[in-house]
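Researcher: I'd like a candidate sequence for this fold, 369 residues long. If you have to choose between options at a position, lean toward the conservative one.
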Protein backbone atom coordinates (compact mmCIF):
# COMPACT_ATOMS: atom_id res chain seq x y z
CA UNK A 1 0.00 0.00 0.00
CA UNK A 2 1.51 3.37 -0.98
CA UNK A 3 2.49 5.67 1.91
CA UNK A 4 1.58 2.90 4.37
CA UNK A 5 4.09 4.07 7.00
CA UNK A 6 2.87 7.66 6.92
CA UNK A 7 -0.78 6.61 7.03
CA UNK A 8 -0.05 4.29 9.97
CA UNK A 9 1.71 7.10 11.83
CA UNK A 10 -1.23 9.46 11.38
CA UNK A 11 -3.75 6.82 12.45
CA UNK A 12 -1.70 5.90 15.51
CA UNK A 13 -1.50 9.56 16.49
CA UNK A 14 -5.26 9.98 16.19
CA UNK A 15 -5.84 6.79 18.17
CA UNK A 16 -3.40 7.83 20.89
CA UNK A 17 -5.06 11.23 21.29
CA UNK A 18 -8.61 9.81 21.42
CA UNK A 19 -8.80 6.27 22.82
CA UNK A 20 -5.36 6.81 24.35
CA UNK A 21 -6.79 9.36 26.81
CA UNK A 22 -10.19 7.71 27.35
CA UNK A 23 -9.61 7.29 31.11
CA UNK A 24 -8.65 10.95 31.49
CA UNK A 25 -11.86 12.01 29.76
CA UNK A 26 -13.80 9.54 31.90
CA UNK A 27 -12.39 11.11 35.06
CA UNK A 28 -13.47 14.55 33.84
CA UNK A 29 -16.99 13.50 32.89
CA UNK A 30 -17.56 11.36 36.00
CA UNK A 31 -16.67 14.27 38.27
CA UNK A 32 -18.70 16.70 36.19
CA UNK A 33 -21.90 14.66 36.17
CA UNK A 34 -21.55 13.61 39.82
CA UNK A 35 -21.34 17.20 41.04
CA UNK A 36 -24.05 18.25 38.61
CA UNK A 37 -26.37 15.74 40.25
CA UNK A 38 -25.78 17.48 43.58
CA UNK A 39 -26.19 20.95 42.02
CA UNK A 40 -22.55 21.90 42.58
CA UNK A 41 -20.06 23.62 40.28
CA UNK A 42 -19.61 20.80 37.76
CA UNK A 43 -17.21 22.72 35.52
CA UNK A 44 -14.64 23.28 38.28
CA UNK A 45 -15.05 19.70 39.53
CA UNK A 46 -14.40 18.34 36.03
CA UNK A 47 -11.29 20.46 35.56
CA UNK A 48 -9.98 19.49 38.99
CA UNK A 49 -10.56 15.79 38.28
CA UNK A 50 -8.84 16.18 34.91
CA UNK A 51 -5.69 17.65 36.48
CA UNK A 52 -5.81 15.28 39.47
CA UNK A 53 -5.90 12.22 37.23
CA UNK A 54 -3.01 13.61 35.20
CA UNK A 55 -1.05 13.85 38.45
CA UNK A 56 -1.71 10.14 39.10
CA UNK A 57 -0.58 9.23 35.59
CA UNK A 58 2.50 11.47 35.66
CA UNK A 59 5.71 9.48 35.29
CA UNK A 60 8.94 11.16 36.47
CA UNK A 61 11.83 10.52 34.09
CA UNK A 62 14.63 12.60 35.59
CA UNK A 63 14.91 14.46 32.27
CA UNK A 64 13.36 17.58 30.81
CA UNK A 65 9.86 17.23 29.44
CA UNK A 66 6.70 15.51 30.62
CA UNK A 67 5.92 11.80 30.47
CA UNK A 68 2.75 9.95 31.46
CA UNK A 69 1.72 6.38 32.12
CA UNK A 70 -0.25 5.82 28.91
CA UNK A 71 -1.64 2.52 30.18
CA UNK A 72 -3.58 4.33 32.90
CA UNK A 73 -4.58 7.13 30.51
CA UNK A 74 -6.03 4.74 27.92
CA UNK A 75 -8.80 2.17 27.87
CA UNK A 76 -7.09 -0.13 30.38
CA UNK A 77 -7.39 2.53 33.08
CA UNK A 78 -11.02 3.35 32.33
CA UNK A 79 -12.42 1.94 35.57
CA UNK A 80 -9.82 3.84 37.60
CA UNK A 81 -10.71 7.06 35.77
CA UNK A 82 -14.43 6.61 36.42
CA UNK A 83 -13.91 5.84 40.09
CA UNK A 84 -11.51 8.76 40.54
CA UNK A 85 -13.96 11.16 38.88
CA UNK A 86 -16.83 9.95 41.06
CA UNK A 87 -14.65 10.32 44.16
CA UNK A 88 -13.72 13.88 43.15
CA UNK A 89 -17.41 14.66 42.69
CA UNK A 90 -18.11 13.46 46.23
CA UNK A 91 -15.26 15.64 47.53
CA UNK A 92 -16.77 18.69 45.83
CA UNK A 93 -20.12 17.78 47.27
CA UNK A 94 -18.81 17.80 50.84
CA UNK A 95 -15.66 19.96 51.01
CA UNK A 96 -16.07 22.81 48.58
CA UNK A 97 -17.42 24.20 45.39
CA UNK A 98 -20.28 26.66 44.89
CA UNK A 99 -23.75 25.54 43.97
CA UNK A 100 -25.06 26.04 40.45
CA UNK A 101 -26.83 29.30 41.24
CA UNK A 102 -23.66 30.92 42.61
CA UNK A 103 -21.57 29.47 39.79
CA UNK A 104 -24.01 30.91 37.27
CA UNK A 105 -23.67 34.39 38.73
CA UNK A 106 -19.89 34.22 38.97
CA UNK A 107 -18.25 35.48 35.80
CA UNK A 108 -14.60 35.09 36.69
CA UNK A 109 -13.01 31.63 36.65
CA UNK A 110 -10.75 32.71 39.50
CA UNK A 111 -13.79 33.25 41.72
CA UNK A 112 -14.85 29.67 40.98
CA UNK A 113 -11.37 28.44 41.86
CA UNK A 114 -11.16 30.33 45.16
CA UNK A 115 -14.57 29.07 46.24
CA UNK A 116 -13.55 25.49 45.37
CA UNK A 117 -10.02 25.87 46.77
CA UNK A 118 -10.43 23.37 49.68
CA UNK A 119 -11.67 20.65 47.31
CA UNK A 120 -8.91 21.45 44.79
CA UNK A 121 -6.24 21.10 47.48
CA UNK A 122 -7.64 17.76 48.67
CA UNK A 123 -7.77 16.35 45.12
CA UNK A 124 -4.24 17.63 44.40
CA UNK A 125 -2.87 15.85 47.47
CA UNK A 126 -4.69 12.64 46.49
CA UNK A 127 -3.29 12.92 42.95
CA UNK A 128 0.28 13.32 44.22
CA UNK A 129 -0.10 10.38 46.62
CA UNK A 130 -1.61 8.29 43.82
CA UNK A 131 1.30 9.13 41.53
CA UNK A 132 3.77 8.10 44.24
CA UNK A 133 1.91 4.82 44.76
CA UNK A 134 1.96 4.02 41.02
CA UNK A 135 5.69 4.79 40.84
CA UNK A 136 6.29 2.56 43.85
CA UNK A 137 4.30 -0.31 42.33
CA UNK A 138 6.21 0.00 39.04
CA UNK A 139 9.57 0.19 40.82
CA UNK A 140 8.98 -3.18 42.44
CA UNK A 141 7.29 -4.60 39.30
CA UNK A 142 4.07 -5.31 41.17
CA UNK A 143 1.76 -4.36 38.30
CA UNK A 144 3.79 -6.19 35.63
CA UNK A 145 3.97 -9.26 37.87
CA UNK A 146 0.18 -9.27 38.29
CA UNK A 147 -0.33 -8.91 34.53
CA UNK A 148 2.15 -11.75 33.86
CA UNK A 149 0.51 -14.06 36.39
CA UNK A 150 -2.95 -13.32 35.01
CA UNK A 151 -1.76 -14.04 31.46
CA UNK A 152 -0.02 -17.24 32.54
CA UNK A 153 -3.14 -18.34 34.37
CA UNK A 154 -5.17 -17.93 31.18
CA UNK A 155 -2.64 -19.81 29.04
CA UNK A 156 -2.61 -22.80 31.41
CA UNK A 157 -6.31 -23.65 30.93
CA UNK A 158 -6.79 -26.59 28.55
CA UNK A 159 -10.13 -28.06 29.64
CA UNK A 160 -13.57 -27.02 28.43
CA UNK A 161 -15.02 -25.93 31.77
CA UNK A 162 -11.92 -24.06 32.96
CA UNK A 163 -11.49 -22.31 29.61
CA UNK A 164 -15.12 -21.18 29.59
CA UNK A 165 -14.83 -19.93 33.18
CA UNK A 166 -11.69 -17.94 32.37
CA UNK A 167 -13.47 -16.59 29.29
CA UNK A 168 -16.36 -15.48 31.51
CA UNK A 169 -13.89 -13.79 33.86
CA UNK A 170 -12.22 -12.00 30.94
CA UNK A 171 -15.58 -10.79 29.63
CA UNK A 172 -16.71 -9.62 33.08
CA UNK A 173 -13.47 -7.71 33.61
CA UNK A 174 -13.92 -6.15 30.17
CA UNK A 175 -17.42 -5.00 31.20
CA UNK A 176 -15.79 -3.42 34.26
CA UNK A 177 -13.21 -1.65 32.09
CA UNK A 178 -10.25 -3.91 32.92
CA UNK A 179 -8.10 -6.41 31.03
CA UNK A 180 -8.79 -10.05 31.84
CA UNK A 181 -6.66 -13.20 31.45
CA UNK A 182 -7.46 -13.79 27.77
CA UNK A 183 -7.11 -10.11 26.89
CA UNK A 184 -3.46 -9.89 27.93
CA UNK A 185 -1.78 -12.44 25.64
CA UNK A 186 -1.59 -13.13 21.92
CA UNK A 187 -1.03 -16.28 19.85
CA UNK A 188 2.74 -16.09 20.25
CA UNK A 189 2.39 -15.74 24.02
CA UNK A 190 0.23 -18.87 24.33
CA UNK A 191 2.38 -22.03 24.81
CA UNK A 192 -0.56 -24.31 24.01
CA UNK A 193 -1.17 -22.46 20.72
CA UNK A 194 2.48 -22.88 19.75
CA UNK A 195 2.33 -26.59 20.65
CA UNK A 196 -0.82 -27.00 18.55
CA UNK A 197 0.79 -25.23 15.61
CA UNK A 198 3.92 -27.41 15.76
CA UNK A 199 1.84 -30.59 15.89
CA UNK A 200 -0.35 -29.45 12.98
CA UNK A 201 2.69 -28.66 10.86
CA UNK A 202 4.40 -31.92 11.79
CA UNK A 203 1.43 -34.24 11.32
CA UNK A 204 -0.20 -32.19 8.53
CA UNK A 205 -3.49 -32.53 10.37
CA UNK A 206 -5.56 -30.40 12.74
CA UNK A 207 -7.34 -33.37 14.30
CA UNK A 208 -4.32 -34.55 16.30
CA UNK A 209 -3.32 -31.35 18.08
CA UNK A 210 -2.75 -31.83 21.86
CA UNK A 211 -4.82 -28.91 23.24
CA UNK A 212 -8.26 -28.61 21.69
CA UNK A 213 -9.99 -26.40 24.28
CA UNK A 214 -7.89 -23.31 24.99
CA UNK A 215 -8.23 -19.55 24.96
CA UNK A 216 -7.06 -19.50 21.35
CA UNK A 217 -9.29 -22.30 20.04
CA UNK A 218 -12.46 -21.22 21.91
CA UNK A 219 -12.35 -17.67 23.27
CA UNK A 220 -10.38 -15.77 20.63
CA UNK A 221 -11.91 -17.77 17.79
CA UNK A 222 -15.57 -17.78 18.89
CA UNK A 223 -16.06 -15.95 22.20
CA UNK A 224 -15.43 -12.40 21.05
CA UNK A 225 -17.01 -11.60 17.67
CA UNK A 226 -16.48 -7.88 17.24
CA UNK A 227 -14.67 -7.64 20.56
CA UNK A 228 -15.55 -8.63 24.12
CA UNK A 229 -19.21 -9.39 24.60
CA UNK A 230 -19.71 -10.27 20.91
CA UNK A 231 -20.57 -6.66 20.15
CA UNK A 232 -20.92 -7.44 16.45
CA UNK A 233 -24.18 -9.20 17.36
CA UNK A 234 -25.25 -6.23 19.50
CA UNK A 235 -24.61 -3.91 16.56
CA UNK A 236 -26.86 -6.02 14.34
CA UNK A 237 -29.56 -6.19 17.05
CA UNK A 238 -29.50 -2.40 17.48
CA UNK A 239 -29.87 -1.83 13.75
CA UNK A 240 -32.89 -4.19 13.77
CA UNK A 241 -34.95 -2.86 16.71
CA UNK A 242 -33.47 0.41 18.06
CA UNK A 243 -35.34 3.67 17.46
CA UNK A 244 -33.57 6.27 19.60
CA UNK A 245 -31.31 8.47 17.53
CA UNK A 246 -28.38 8.46 19.96
CA UNK A 247 -28.07 4.67 19.91
CA UNK A 248 -28.63 4.48 16.16
CA UNK A 249 -26.02 7.19 15.55
CA UNK A 250 -23.41 5.25 17.53
CA UNK A 251 -24.36 2.02 15.76
CA UNK A 252 -24.10 3.60 12.30
CA UNK A 253 -20.58 4.81 13.04
CA UNK A 254 -19.50 1.45 14.48
CA UNK A 255 -19.68 -1.23 11.73
CA UNK A 256 -16.15 -0.76 10.38
CA UNK A 257 -14.24 -0.85 13.70
CA UNK A 258 -16.50 -3.54 15.21
CA UNK A 259 -16.11 -5.72 12.12
CA UNK A 260 -12.37 -5.68 12.80
CA UNK A 261 -12.87 -6.39 16.54
CA UNK A 262 -12.44 -2.86 17.89
CA UNK A 263 -15.53 -2.22 20.00
CA UNK A 264 -14.32 0.80 22.02
CA UNK A 265 -16.87 3.06 20.30
CA UNK A 266 -19.79 0.91 21.44
CA UNK A 267 -18.35 0.26 24.91
CA UNK A 268 -18.35 4.01 25.55
CA UNK A 269 -21.06 5.26 23.20
CA UNK A 270 -24.00 2.95 23.96
CA UNK A 271 -22.61 2.59 26.70
CA UNK A 272 -21.86 -1.04 27.55
CA UNK A 273 -19.26 -0.51 30.27
CA UNK A 274 -20.79 -0.79 33.76
CA UNK A 275 -24.28 -0.86 32.21
CA UNK A 276 -26.34 -3.45 34.15
CA UNK A 277 -28.90 -3.68 31.34
CA UNK A 278 -26.33 -5.37 29.08
CA UNK A 279 -24.34 -7.39 31.60
CA UNK A 280 -26.30 -10.63 31.08
CA UNK A 281 -26.08 -10.77 27.25
CA UNK A 282 -22.51 -9.44 27.38
CA UNK A 283 -21.58 -12.54 29.40
CA UNK A 284 -23.99 -15.08 27.85
CA UNK A 285 -22.91 -14.61 24.25
CA UNK A 286 -19.31 -15.45 25.07
CA UNK A 287 -20.31 -18.53 27.07
CA UNK A 288 -22.71 -19.83 24.41
CA UNK A 289 -20.19 -19.34 21.62
CA UNK A 290 -17.41 -21.18 23.44
CA UNK A 291 -19.76 -24.00 24.49
CA UNK A 292 -21.07 -24.46 20.93
CA UNK A 293 -17.54 -24.43 19.51
CA UNK A 294 -16.34 -26.96 22.11
CA UNK A 295 -19.30 -29.23 21.32
CA UNK A 296 -18.59 -29.01 17.58
CA UNK A 297 -14.92 -29.87 18.14
CA UNK A 298 -15.88 -32.78 20.42
CA UNK A 299 -18.21 -34.20 17.75
CA UNK A 300 -15.49 -33.62 15.13
CA UNK A 301 -17.81 -31.39 13.14
CA UNK A 302 -14.89 -29.03 12.76
CA UNK A 303 -11.19 -29.08 13.68
CA UNK A 304 -9.75 -26.79 16.38
CA UNK A 305 -7.99 -23.59 15.39
CA UNK A 306 -4.25 -24.16 15.12
CA UNK A 307 -2.89 -21.55 12.70
CA UNK A 308 -2.18 -17.92 13.65
CA UNK A 309 -4.59 -15.33 12.29
CA UNK A 310 -3.64 -11.73 11.40
CA UNK A 311 -4.58 -9.10 13.98
CA UNK A 312 -7.83 -7.38 13.07
CA UNK A 313 -9.33 -10.30 11.16
CA UNK A 314 -13.15 -10.07 11.29
CA UNK A 315 -14.36 -12.22 14.19
CA UNK A 316 -16.54 -14.59 12.14
CA UNK A 317 -13.56 -15.38 9.88
CA UNK A 318 -11.02 -16.09 12.64
CA UNK A 319 -11.91 -19.78 13.00
CA UNK A 320 -12.26 -20.21 9.23
CA UNK A 321 -8.75 -18.86 8.60
CA UNK A 322 -7.28 -20.45 11.74
CA UNK A 323 -8.35 -23.91 10.57
CA UNK A 324 -6.85 -23.43 7.13
CA UNK A 325 -10.17 -22.73 5.40
CA UNK A 326 -12.53 -25.38 6.85
CA UNK A 327 -16.05 -24.27 5.91
CA UNK A 328 -17.47 -26.15 8.89
CA UNK A 329 -15.69 -23.64 11.18
CA UNK A 330 -17.23 -20.77 9.22
CA UNK A 331 -20.70 -22.31 9.51
CA UNK A 332 -20.31 -22.80 13.28
CA UNK A 333 -19.19 -19.17 13.57
CA UNK A 334 -22.23 -17.93 11.65
CA UNK A 335 -24.54 -20.05 13.84
CA UNK A 336 -22.93 -18.53 16.94
CA UNK A 337 -23.41 -15.03 15.54
CA UNK A 338 -27.09 -15.72 14.83
CA UNK A 339 -27.64 -16.98 18.38
CA UNK A 340 -25.82 -13.93 19.76
CA UNK A 341 -28.15 -11.60 17.87
CA UNK A 342 -31.18 -13.45 19.25
CA UNK A 343 -29.76 -13.14 22.79
CA UNK A 344 -29.20 -9.39 22.43
CA UNK A 345 -32.56 -8.52 20.81
CA UNK A 346 -34.76 -8.55 23.98
CA UNK A 347 -32.15 -6.60 25.94
CA UNK A 348 -31.91 -3.93 23.25
CA UNK A 349 -35.70 -3.65 23.36
CA UNK A 350 -35.55 -3.42 27.18
CA UNK A 351 -32.98 -0.64 26.91
CA UNK A 352 -35.25 1.20 24.47
CA UNK A 353 -38.15 0.95 26.94
CA UNK A 354 -36.00 2.23 29.82
CA UNK A 355 -34.80 5.23 27.80
CA UNK A 356 -38.38 6.01 26.72
CA UNK A 357 -39.56 5.87 30.35
CA UNK A 358 -36.79 8.22 31.47
CA UNK A 359 -37.59 10.67 28.68
CA UNK A 360 -41.31 10.69 29.60
CA UNK A 361 -40.40 11.32 33.24
CA UNK A 362 -38.08 14.21 32.32
CA UNK A 363 -40.73 15.74 30.07
CA UNK A 364 -43.29 15.55 32.88
CA UNK A 365 -40.88 17.22 35.33
CA UNK A 366 -40.15 19.99 32.82
CA UNK A 367 -43.85 20.64 32.34
CA UNK A 368 -44.37 20.89 36.11
CA UNK A 369 -41.43 23.26 36.52
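Model: Candidate sequence:
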Amino acid sequence: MPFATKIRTVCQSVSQLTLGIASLLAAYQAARYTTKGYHKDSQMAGLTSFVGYLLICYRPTGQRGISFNWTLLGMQGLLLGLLFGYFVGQIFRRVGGSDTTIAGKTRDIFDHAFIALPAILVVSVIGILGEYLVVLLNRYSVISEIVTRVANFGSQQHEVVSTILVGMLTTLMGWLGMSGPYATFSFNDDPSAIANLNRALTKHSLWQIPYKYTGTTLFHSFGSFGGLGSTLALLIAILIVAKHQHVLRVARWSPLPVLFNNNALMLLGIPLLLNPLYLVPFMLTSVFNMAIAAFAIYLRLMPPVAYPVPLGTPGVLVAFIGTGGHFSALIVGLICLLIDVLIYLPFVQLSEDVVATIERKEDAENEIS
